[in-house]
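re: ur msg from earlier - yeah i can do the iron/sulfur cluster complex, just paste it... oh wait u already did. ok heres what im feeding in:
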Amino acid sequence: MKRRGGKTVIITSQGKKLSIKDPRVKLHMPGFSNFHTDLFEKSFTLFGFNVGKSTEIKLEYPVKGLRYSSGKECIPLPIVIGNLMTLVENRKPGEIIGYFMIRGGSPCAVYSYFHYLEQFIEHNKLENVFIYRFDFLTKFLGIPLLQILKYAPKIIIMGDLITEVYNALQVVGEEGSIDLFHKYWYEFIKNTNDLKQLDKNIDKLIEKIALIPRKNSPEKLPSVLISGDFFVRFSPFFINELKSYYNKHGILVKSTDLYELVLYSIHYQSYLVAQRWKKSPDDFSTFIKSLATPWNENSRLILFSKIALKILHRIERKQRKRFAKTGLLFAGPNNLREIFKQSGPYISPLIFGEAIPTIGKGIETLEDSRFDSLVLTGPINCLPYKISQAILKPIYLEHQKPFLVFDVDISAMTPNMKRLVNANIEQIKRRRIKDTSVVKDRISFSKLLRVLNKGMK
Ligand code: SF4
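and the outut:
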């Protein structure tokens, strides 16, 4: 993939130059979350790209991918390799495959995925296959920045909110409610054929979901937060079995929002710059210095990050308010400042990757009464997961709040893991009973005071 004359083009293995929007070029994405992936595919189609249908992760992907890796890498790598190989095996004649990959940072191995995949394609002589990114550096594959700013945050947060709504419905829905939900969701995806229709169709979808029958409201039900690697925490392949255990006991499950990772990535840039200035990006003096030197690239980056975060937080609050009409939201908005503040005493803000949001969110959840437990998840050989685990586990133990470490693997849950999940569920239930009896005690004590007061009068 190259930029030529201000346009994004693909140079085929035969040396032919094609537009990225040429019908022969099919863009694919790893299927890590059903709703986010549906939305990304839809929006890419509406931006004029040709999109190949992604599928949920299947066991054949890691099995195939492990043949091309050492088995010591974190598990998303063999999965994306297996997925890519399956696409190559099944492609139509003449099709050019583009496969999406992000770039992260240390201590996360995803930093190397992009180059690893490029080398993999070269070493295995896979013709007409390329890896693409969709970010500022690739000029968003030619999509105007204003379009990106207008739609991308809305689409990402919608993926998070619709996942939350769906998770709630799995617990509070009546028989047939989930089928209705799927029906409305696919109608929404099918009938949105223009970005201009997006808002109108979102409102229609919300109205329909609000009418889906349910037994009760999710508001007061116990809930757990699943935090950790984003590829894992949304994926039905990894967490469906775990979710069903909690759901059977009337416990809601929320995966930490993808939006949080987006906010984090933007704010991180200002940390890098502020470090060069030997200041904190949140200091007032940093802001004043950036304002006073707008010609300086670093100043512009800090100002951009501050303005962007304000706008992005506002967009999230607006979308949350909108989706609250479904009556199925049960978590609050993301608070990036809180995440950095909470993780600050434990890990340097300059280490980029999922460890910081995971630790920050973990400590925030400890103090947040909405969630009854944190479930920290990730593949065994994931360094950010291990770091977060080492920091959060003793803190949760000290505060006696339920905490579960859920190692994911491509096999089904082990009997030992099932025992740990059941123990976590039991702890949540006992905590709820204890909290209810404390409230009851408080009520009876105030009743007693009222009676005594009356008697005195
Ligand atoms: S967060 Fe962990 S599992 Fe995910 S890509 Fe990074 S190292 Fe791998």
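cool cool. The two ends are 85 Å apart (CA to CA). ping me if u need the other ligands too
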